UniProtKB/TrEMBL annotation, chain A:
A GO cellular component entry from the record: mitochondrial small ribosomal subunit
Pfam families, A to Z: Bot1p
GO BP terms, alphabetized: mitochondrial translation
Record field: compositional bias (Low complexity): 19-32
Region (Disordered): 19-44, 299-381
Basic and acidic residues bias spans: 301-337
Upper lineage: Eukaryota, Fungi, Dikarya, Ascomycota, Pezizomycotina
Example GO molecular function: structural constituent of ribosome
Protein name according to UniProt: Eukaryotic mitochondrial regulator protein-domain-containing protein
Alphabetical list of InterPro entries matching this protein: Ribosomal_mS45
UniProtKB/TrEMBL annotation, chain B:
InterPro entries named among the record's database cross-references: Ribosomal_bS16, Ribosomal_bS16_dom_sf
Record keyword Iron present: no
Pfam families in alphabetical order: Ribosomal_S16
Entry keywords, A to Z: Ribonucleoprotein, Ribosomal protein
Annotated GO MF terms: structural constituent of ribosome
Entry protein name: Mitochondrial 37S ribosomal protein MRPS16
Origin: domain of life: Eukaryota
Gene Ontology terms: biological process: mitochondrial translation
Protein family per UniProt: Belongs to the bacterial ribosomal protein bS16 family.
Source organism of the structure: Aspergillus sclerotiicarbonarius (strain CBS 121057 / IBT 28362)
GO cellular component, one term: mitochondrial small ribosomal subunit
Length: 381, 103
């Protein structure tokens, strides 16, 4: 089968004015043609306006370079102008809009490498994300999409290869480098939490330490941590963080009824890769050799992953325990019977609590009302 | 008056969803019941997150959620299940499954 992405010079058929045959001939013939033929809809007497003249001049001279592009390199207006000034690789395609940057996409090799590492080498998504510096969600998406592509090939379905080729030629791509991989995107980004939106004036005595943990407790309206507990946590922060990330169900809960929520944890805990902070901290405290560092890092990652797997297994087991599966002989379907609890605690005093089973009475459903957006705007991974 | 365990229809057009309710027999289908003891989703769901071989053989499933202890209590005090609820309770093993269920 032909490769998905080709590497050869391609002429740009998207710009009709620049297509090779018409460039010179059309301009020369413009002046010789009768006026009405070239601009039949215009009521201007002049055959060409000044602006049109300028445009054609620009197309012939400066924009002539844009006619051909090298696959794998962007063919942006800005990059041409910047290259003249000695600055190469500007990701901004629009000279008038400096705030717009075209983000690079995964190159074909990087995409294949991600798939190989996750599926063939059986590495975890977390480890691959750190190794290749690609977001965990993107790693997962790559694996799913490559699987989908393989299945489509097996079924003999057509793939949109020309489209993929065109896109890979037009936009910047992140190449695969085995040693010192280039950063595709920030992997440890943290979205702003809803609880941190309000500005809170919180007086603290000067004699007391006030750190991120305390700030999280203030934001979630939880009482301050006891001094003994705070001192205990401060002894080994890495251990404290891994304890929380490995047992997220043990996080303290505050609030009552509908407002019940977990205490907001510090950013060190909530970031996608808390183990990176821990290993960095360890490095700073006890400088070790590189081989030793890698070993410690791998061990930490392994421990994290094992705890993660164990947690998933337990939650599935619990779910399975609550579900009874019945397969009647004469039915095409399986019936899954889940246990629920109807009590004062779940239904609430007025019977409208969301934790009770069933659709609610006396609670309006707005899903047929005008202006309700039903298209999902985000994907929870 | 008789107390019945029956289904009350929620959901939209072509998207039925039922609450399993305990209600007075002569009350309207969707009126506020004595108690909601579970739900039944009659639209078959495709199981997800399976390997390809598993996905080929897997049966679609219908979800029932039920509070067994409340169902037992209401049956114990003489509530009469409707035909469709009898079938569901039969699947859960709370009543005897029989082929000729009344209405």
């Amino acid at each position: 089968m032909a490769p998905r992405i080709q590497n050869q010079i391609v002429s740009n058929s998207l710009l009709p004015y620049l297509s090779s045959s018409s460039t010179s001939s059309s301009f020369t013939s413009l002046s010789s043609r009768p006026r009405r033929s070239c601009r039949s809809f215009s009521s201007t007497v002049a055959p060409q306006t000044r602006l049109r003249n300028q445009m054609f001049l620009w197309l012939r001279q400066e924009a002539a370079e844009l006619k051909h592009h090298t696959p794998g390199e962007t063919n942006y207006l800005t990059s041409k102008a910047e290259a003249a000034r000695g600055y190469v690789g500007d990701p901004r395609p629009f000279p008038q809009n400096i705030h717009y940057c075209s983000e690079s996409i995964l190159s074909e090799e990087l995409r294949t490498e991600i798939y190989n590492r996750v599926v063939k080498q059986k590495k975890s998504v977390r480890a691959v994300s750190v190794e290749l510096k690609v977001d965990m969600r993107r790693v997962a998406a790559v694996v799913r999409l490559v699987e989908l592509e393989k299945r489509m090939k097996e079924q003999g379905k057509l793939l949109a290869l020309p489209y993929a080729r065109a896109i890979h030629e037009m936009v910047p791509t992140t190449p695969l480098r085995h040693y010192d991989p280039s950063t595709h995107e920030e992997i440890n980004d943290l979205p702003v939490h809803r609880l941190t939106n309000p500005q809170i004036f919180y007086p603290v005595s000067e004699s007391r330490q006030f750190n991120r943990v305390d700030a999280g407790r203030v934001f979630s309206a939880a009482p301050a941590l006891e001094h003994e507990q705070a001192a205990k946590d401060a002894v080994d922060p890495s251990e404290t963080i891994s304890r929380i990330t490995q047992n997220p169900s043990h996080i303290e809960v505050v609030g009552k009824g509908e407002d019940e929520h977990q205490v907001l944890q510090p950013a060190d805990v909530r970031i996608p890769h808390p183990h990176m902070v821990a290993s960095r901290r360890e490095q700073a405290l006890v400088p070790q050799e590189r081989a030793q560092q890698i070993k410690i890092y791998q061990a930490r990652l392994q421990k994290e992953e094992e705890a993660d797997q164990e947690r998933k297994r337990r939650s599935e087991e619990r779910k399975e325990k609550q579900t009874q599966r019945v397969q009647p002989e004469d039915s095409r379907f399986e019936f899954r019977i889940n246990d629920v609890v109807v009590s004062q605690e779940t239904t609430g005093k007025d019977g409208r609590n969301a934790r009770a089973p069933g659709r609610r009475y006396g609670v309006p459903s707005y899903d047929r009302k005008k202006g309700q957006v039903k298209i999902p705007t985000r994907v929870e991974v | 008056m008789v107390v019945r365990i029956r289904l009350s229809r929620f959901g939209n057009k072509h998207q039925p969803f039922y609450n399993i309710v305990v209600a007075q027999a002569r009350s309207a289908r969707d009126s506020k019941p004595l108690e909601v003891i579970g739900t039944f989703n009659p639209i078959p769901q495709r199981p997800t997150n399976l390997s390809e071989e598993q996905a080929r053989t897997a049966k679609a499933y219908k979800e029932i959620s039920l509070d067994r202890s409340r169902a037992k209590y209401w049956l114990g005090v003489g509530a009469q299940p409707s035909g469709s609820v009898w079938r569901l309770l039969g699947l859960a093993g709370l009543v005897q499954e029989s082929k000729n269920v009344q209405n």
